[in-house]
Amino acid sequence: MKTLVISAVSLFLSLGGAAVAQTTTVVVPGEVRTYVEKQDTPSVTFEGDVAVGTAFPDTVEIHKIPDQPDYGYVVVNKKRVLVNPKTRTVIEVIK
Which residues sit opposite 46 in a β-bridge? Predict the structure, then answer.
């Protein structure tokens, strides 16, 4: 019985942690979004879903944003996407 309770508590805590991790919101400065929307950057093709959390391979060039080292962008499948340049993961799909 004790093992069952410990297992149930462990499962509850691990699921609770996953739920919290999924609700993390990144607040992007407005000037970053404005800069990306004004750029005339050609679109590249990417096989797969482009959504928050998607990691791009090294073959996808991430463009730098001046004075914003925590943000990069790429235009993929005709969508403008904000990316964390260190992890290469999507932060936000703009359009």
Answer: none
Model pTM score: 0.71
How far is the CA of 31 from the CAs of 28, 34, 44, 68, 95, in angstroms? 8, 5, 24, 10, 16
Q: Where does the chain show beta strands of DSSP type E?
A: 63-64, 72-76, 79-84, 89-93
Minimal CA–CA distance to 70: which of 48, 44, 94, 89?
89
Least Cα distance to 66 among 20, 94, 34 occurs for 34
pLDDT tens digits for range 42-90? 999 999 899 999 999 999 999 999 999 999 999 999 999 999 999 999 9
Cα–Cα distances (Å) from 20 to 16, 34, 52, in that order, read 6, 29, 15
